[in-house]
Specification:
Layout: H1 23-34, H2 48-71, H3 78-91, E1 95-96, E2 109-112, E3 115-117, E4 132-141, E5 144-153, H4 159-176, H5 185-198, E6 202-203, E7 209-211, E8 218-222, E9 239-242, E10 245-247, E11 253-255, E12 263-265, E13 271-273, E14 276-280, E15 285-289
Antiparallel strand pairs: 1-4, 2-4, 3-12, 4-5, 6-10, 7-8, 9-14, 10-13, 11-12, 14-15
Length: 290
């Protein structure tokens, strides 16, 4: 960790001398590092000023998904959802973060039934009664990023699919209980995985969450099949997503060879995912977007 001198201005932007601000914080991190743990550097830890700007981005992110929630129904195309997200994000001063990201062609991801994630909106895909769909919205505002997703049950959804959606949502709550400063991301991952498995489902291994804020995707990569006491140390100022992908059947997935993006369950059974963006605080966590 690149640290300033004791009498230099602290890296956090407070204007205080380092010895009066974050020196003890950094020394505590170094103790964990000396014990062999993975620890965050200053590029991962957000300053109070950065956090406030990320929250401004999140206001757009939440508002866009609220709009989707009010208007989504059977008979509309996923391309129409894409237009809603694009137009409202722009109207509120933001930029859809997915549009053009590593070549992704749309402003939102729409993943239906056995699509795990990264579904590409299309005029040809029409929502039907009984579908479950994940709408994953990512927002940039003045260089600061937010990201969340929600599941929607379209019309008369079967009891087994509705239960999958509910367990996926509750798995976030179980994970949140383990988000504490000076704990580990593996604590959260195990809490999610234990809960999901206890309900007879599986967690996708290959795709996970990520740090976010100054970039769309930052370190650390966040897994939900990890064990307690492993993965990166959580410290106040870290921001990451919790977004486990829960399969009704086995955890195995594959990528669409034609578009190179959409991920499906290998056994064809449904998948569900909710995503929230979380800030680690001095005494727990704060949900930034949802």
């Amino acid at each position: 960790m690149d640290k300033p001198g004791r009498n230099d201005v602290c890296w956090c932007g407070s204007g205080k001398k380092y010895k009066k601000c974050h020196i003890e914080f950094d020394e505590k991190i170094e103790i964990f590092e000396s014990q062999g743990h993975i620890v965050p550097d200053h590029t991962i830890i957000k300053t109070p000023q950065q956090i406030e700007k990320i929250k401004e981005s999140a206001k757009i992110n939440i508002a866009v998904l609220d709009y989707v929630a009010e208007h989504i129904k059977a008979g509309i195309s996923t391309e129409e959802i894409n237009r809603w997200v694009h137009d409202l994000t722009i109207k509120m001063g933001g930029i859809p973060a997915t549009l053009g990201y590593e070549g992704f062609p749309k402003s939102v991801c729409t993943s239906i039934n056995n699509e795990v994630c990264h579904g590409i909106p299309s005029e040809d895909v029409i929502l039907k009664d009984g579908d479950i769909i994940n709408v994953d919205c990512s927002t940039e505002l003045n260089g600061f990023f937010s990201d969340s997703s929600r599941m929607f049950c379209i019309g008369n959804v079967s009891e087994e699919n509705r239960r999958l959606v509910e367990v996926a949502k509750q798995s976030l709550q179980e994970g949140l209980k383990a988000v504490k400063p000076w704990g580990f991301l593996g604590d959260m991952g195990q809490a999610v995985n234990d809960y999901v498995k206890s309900n007879g489902y599986s967690v996708v291994r290959e795709v996970g969450g990520h740090g976010i804020g100054l970039e769309f995707h930052e370190e650390p990569w966040v897994s939900y099949v990890t064990t307690k006491g492993t993965e990166m140390l959580m410290v106040p100022g870290m921001i990451f997503t919790i977004e486990p992908m829960i399969n009704m059947g086995k955890a195995d997935v594959f990528v669409d060879e034609e578009n190179g993006w959409t991920i499906y369950t290998k056994d064809g059974k449904p998948s569900a995912q909710w995503e929230i963006q979380v800030l680690v605080t001095d005494d727990g966590y704060e949900i930034i977007s949802y």
